[in-house]
Amino acid sequence: MIELLVEARKEAGVTQVELGKRLGVRQTFVSKFELGERRLDVAEYIDVCRAIGTDPCQIMRAADVR
Predict the structure, then answer these.
(1) N or C end of the chain, less CB within 10 A?
(2) In this predicted structure, what is the pLDDT of residue 30?
(3) How far, in Å, CA of 59 to CA of 3, rounded?
(4) Is the pTM of this model over 0.85?
């Protein structure tokens, strides 16, 4: 699912730095969850999806198909 989230961020043209700013966190937070060094809880996942303009359910459905 994280792989799809990273793809969605890149497709939206949002850098890790910009995503961090939108979330009110440092870029390292974004880097850590994208690399799998940190897990996202459900609320954080939804916040990330909203910050990049993607539907959280769509990412989950796509992950289920893979």
Answers:
(1) C
(2) 98
(3) 10
(4) yes
Answer whether 49's CB lies under 8 Å from 11's CB: no
Domain 2-65: CATH superfamily, name plus number: lambda repressor-like DNA-binding domains (1.10.260.40)
Domain boundaries, the chain: 2-65
Give me the pLDDT at residue 65, please: 85
Q: Which two tokens stand for residue 21?
A: 């700013």
Cα(22)–Cα(26) distance, integer angstroms: 10
Separation CA 38–CA 61 (nearest Å): 22
d(CA 52, CA 66): 22
Angle between helix 2-11 and 42-52 (nearest 10): 20
**pLDDT, position 10:** 98
